[in-house]
Amino acid sequence: MSDHVAEVRKLVCDTFLLDPERVRPDTPLEELGIDSKGRIRLLATLEVFFEVTIDLDERDQLTDVESVARILTEALRNKPGETAAR
Hints:
With about 90 residues, the protein is mainly α. Helices cover about 45% and strands about 0% of the residues.
């Protein structure tokens, strides 16, 4: 499991005003009411919060908190000027 699951879970709960009890790493985002527009919003939130760039094409890979954390970890790894992920 990615190092950033807890951070992403909190960000998802805060961004979409969700009860943390409902948000598990493997809960499908669509089950939480997060549709394709919501995934774009989530991408933008991740980019601002973590100061990374995530390709919009990654949107379809955002299926649950765990996959979002995995994509975030990769973006942090590829962040210019960074030698290691947070």
